[in-house]
Amino acid sequence: MITPRRAPENPILTPRMIQPSRPDLEVVGVFNPAVIRHRGEILLLVRVAEAPPHDSSDEIAAPVYNADSGHLEMKRWHKDSEGLDVSDPRIVISNGHTWLTSISHLRVARSTDGIHFEVEPAPALSPATEYESFGVEDARITLLDGTYWINYTAVSQHGISTALASTTDFRTFERHGIIFPPPNRDVTIFPEKIGGRYAALHRPMPEGLGEPTIWFATSPDMISWGEHQFVAGARPDSWDDSKVGGGAVPFRVRTGKRDGWLAVYHGVTASPTTYSLGALLLDANDPSRVIARSQEPILRPEASYEREGFFGGVVFTCGLLAEGDLVRIYYGAADGVTAVADLSLEQILAGLSER
Fold it and tell me: Measured between alpha carbons, how far is 75 from 99 in angstroms, rounded to an integer?
């Protein structure tokens, strides 16, 4: 049985702890962090969601970055407008067009103990192109050849895509553009080349035919990706029966009879809608092949800050630290706060099944 040990300090980051990036916005979420060790510190690259301050007016607003002017603009509607759907607190649907009620950027947080973090006041990566006009979200960090590669979700009126940036010091960042066009997200880049090529998991989101599933791809240069292969999808009558997607960057496991890549992913239960975490053990030389998979979630929303919040019933990870038997998972809870839990690698592996 897998027994996660949630930090007593959870949630370790909340909106009240975060300084807004500008005075006309308020922080409504700080969640889904990437994590890496860098020069004796533990660094998070955390998603900070901001929105216009909530008041009692009859208006609802959606912040949008205008790439032409370089300014943030507010699109507003009267709450009683015809054709307006605000049933999901994350989005506004107006006459068939979708907007977000908040806009996200990425911010660096630093710690020496992995629990108490100091969040930098200024964004590290914020919307800067037309493909990021609705925000930048959910980063993952992979260290390769001395460079930290950061892939993140770029959201705009063109759809949900994946973009790439890089840094060596987490002070300055270089953007490399879109690497997976819409609709695609939840990309995790492997920390080693496989067969002489860069490798990644990604999650296309087909409409009409097919379902969101996890795929594998390779690249000669980190920019152009091909050799796409299906990896894993939802399982009927299981805890991940609705959809699945990537989570933390995979890490190599060599213990006992196990040798492969362990990828912690998220799976969604259809009813009630619940986001939980599980694990895939992938072949060491061919990560498109699943060796084993979690029979039950390794972490499910059980604590109050996971069950209740901006979008309750959610635990979602973009990063972990694995050292020996300790797997420390940093995760977003209820799309609003950041938490951390320690798990045993031995227990995770024991909970895998070949079916």
Answer: 9
CA distances from 237 to 215, 271, 348 (A): 22, 11, 21
Chain-centroid distance, C-alpha 162: 11
Specify whether the CB–CB gap between 155 and 132 falls below 8 A: yes
Closest CA to 120 of 15, 25, 46: 46
**226-261 burial string, b = 16+ CB within 10 Å, else e?**
eeeeebbebeeebbbebbbbbbbbbbebeeeeeebb
**In angstroms, what is the C-alpha Rg of the chain?**
19
How far apart are the C-alpha atoms of 194 and 218, rounded to whole Å?
8
Q: Which CATH superfamily is domain 5-353 in?
A: Glycosyl hydrolase domain; family 43 (2.115.10.20)
Q: Which of 286, 287, 280 has its CA nearest to residue 348?
A: 280
On whether the CB atoms of residues 335 and 11 are closer than 8 A, the answer is no
Report pLDDT for 276. 98
197-238: pLDDT as tens digits: 999 999 999 988 999 999 999 999 999 999 999 999 999 999
Asked whether the beta carbons of 85 and 95 are under 8 A apart, the reply is no
Count Cα neighbours of 59 within 13 Å in the Cβ-side half-sphere: 10
Q: Token pair of 69, please?
A: 């002017």
Q: How far apart are CA 56 and CA 45, in angstroms?
A: 33
Tokens in use for 132? 């990021």
Contact (Cβ atoms closer than 8 angstroms) between residue 64 and residue 26? no
Q: What letter represents residue 259's amino acid?
A: D
What is the pTM for the complete model shown? Answer: 0.96
